[in-house]
Specification:
By secondary structure, the protein is an alpha/beta fold. The chain has a domain of 103 residues: Urease, subunit C, domain 1 (Roll), CATH 2.30.40.10. 36% of the residues lie in helices and 19% in strands. It has 14 helices and 17 strands. The strands form three sheets. Strands 6, 7, 8, 9, 10, 11, 12, 13 and 14 form a nine-stranded parallel β-sheet that branches. Strands 3-2-1-4 form a four-stranded mixed β-sheet, with no helix packed on it.
């Protein structure tokens, strides 16, 4: 859909530019991006500063139904593993129809939060009893329909999920809906491509898949990203060392032929040597600050990963937070608390703004995580755009040079006034056309999921 847009200020090539003319072509991509251009008579003038949309590089859509419902402790101990057991009970209730309702609501919320593309790490594959659906991609196609209804871009990542752990060759009964092998994942990727969907592949984790199947999947996958959960929990690292003699990232660096396709999700517990190995490989990492905090995972070594030049994407994961700015803020604040310093992500002499450095790295890393060759306000990139609300309290009276700092660290409420995806407006003046209908369907599905009769 062709469009001619003019922004008084826009985030171009990692900095603010004035009087920016953006022209989208019929291919839904930017045909031209020009700075310092007076507003043409036929241009639609943006109501505020414009920024490229961000990629949500790690999503489990069904877990949106669990957000806020695991925040009580009834026993003496609560950690990631006890949370996981409770989360599985949600996974055993979701139907294809309720998944679409949950995902549609989620994807609208992600658009409001500044994401214009979502990478769906999809392992909820089978029917409630664990048998495959007659249409093997039934759950995946519901996610695609939800993304279409919401208007967000989707990169589907069907997941290889073979076993319950390094020493458990089969899945637990409460994992029965996740079972896949490499051939099943590759078949789903081929089906997704036949439907015109963006689709990479994923490995749930080293504990959940044998080396032989990981190798087969990576070798057989069509062009596109390969994602994997790795080194999220200390006990996961310990189990990997006990089973293989190597730490998880160390094992991947030695045995998985890491390259730019690979995205290491969490990578919370990484040594300097592992970070350097990832940097040499060209692989990226996906940071999920709100989920990692919620689950008590630990703290990602943000300064070292930044210094190593590793691509860093942002993910909302379990969806306790659906706001990209809040994720960026938490990424920085976690470092401040741990190090008792300020502006840890900044690079004095290069980029003194923590917000600017984090936002740009998330833009670039997110593009790689979703498999885009071009992203942002550049010719040939998909025509995605966020318009900041100049009337937002966080921006009132703020000098123009500090706009991004105030958006990230000023706790801006309803930061984005308008959102465009692929040349089409999906949010205008904070409103989404499907919002009321999606919220109603989501509420009804939630009521059915959590009915006392179940």
């Amino acid at each position: 859909m062709s469009a001619v847009l003019w922004a008084p200020r826009a985030w171009v090539a990692g900095r603010w530019a004035d009087s920016v003319l953006l022209e989208a072509g019929d291919d839904d991509c930017w045909q031209s991006v020009r700075c310092g251009v007076p507003s043409p008579a036929d241009a639609l003038v943006m109501a505020g500063p414009a920024l490229p949309g961000l990629v949500d590089a790690h999503s489990h859509a069904f877990q949106r139904a669990f957000a806020g419902l695991a925040e009580r402790r009834e026993t003496t101990h609560d950690d990631f593993w006890s949370w996981r057991d409770r989360m599985y009970q949600v996974a055993l209730r979701v139907t294809p129809e309720s998944l679409r309702d949950i995902a549609t609501q989620l994807y609208i919320e992600l658009l409001r939060g500044g994401y214009t593309e979502v990478c769906e790490f999809h392992y909820l594959q089978h029917d409630l009893d664990g048998t495959p659906y007659a249409e093997r991609g039934a759950m995946a196609w519901q996610l695609a329909e939800a993304a279409r209804d919401a208007g967000i871009g989707l990169t589907l990542l069907p997941v290889l999920y073979e076993r319950a752990g390094f020493t458990q060759p089969r899945l637990r009964d409460d994992q029965r809906r996740f079972a896949t092998d490499a051939d099943a994942v590759l078949a789903l990727q081929a089906s997704a491509h036949a439907r015109g969907l963006r689709c990479g592949v994923a490995v749930h984790s080293l504990r959940a898949a044998s080396p032989a199947l990981i190798e087969r999947l990576a070798a057989g996958a069509a062009a596109g990203p390969i994602h994997i959960h790795v080194a999220e929990q200390v006990s996961e690292v310990d189990d990997c060392v006990a089973a293989t003699g190597l730490r998880p990232i160390e094992w991947l660096a030695r045995h998985a032929a890491l390259d730019a396709r690979w995205q290491l999700v969490h990578a919370t517990h990484a040594t300097p040597a592992e970070i350097d190995a990832v940097a040499r490989s060209g692989a990226g990492v996906v940071l999920c600050p709100s989920t990692e905090a919620n689950l008590g995972d630990g703290l990602f070594d943000l300064p070292r990963w930044l210094a190593a030049g590793v691509p860093i994407a942002l993910g909302s994961d379990s969806h306790v937070c659906r706001d990209a700015l809040e994720e960026l803020r938490l990424a920085e604040y976690g470092q401040r608390l741990a190090r008792r310093e300020r502006n840890v992500a900044a690079a004095p002499g290069h980029e003194p703004s923590s917000a600017a450095r984090l936002y740009q790295r998330a833009l670039d890393g997110g593009a790689a995580a979703a498999g885009f060759a071009r992203w942002g306000f550049v010719e040939g990139a998909r025509a995605d755009l966020l318009v900041a609300d100049p009337g937002n309290d966080a921006l009132l009276g703020v000098p123009e040079a500090s706009t991004l700092d105030a958006l990230v660290f000023g706790s801006a409420m309803r930061a984005w006034r308008d959102v465009m995806v692929a040349g089409r407006w999906v949010l205008r003046d904070h409103a989404h056309a499907q919002s009321a209908m999606a919220a109603d369907r989501f509420a009804r599905s939630m009521a059915a999921l959590w009915s006392p009769a179940r």
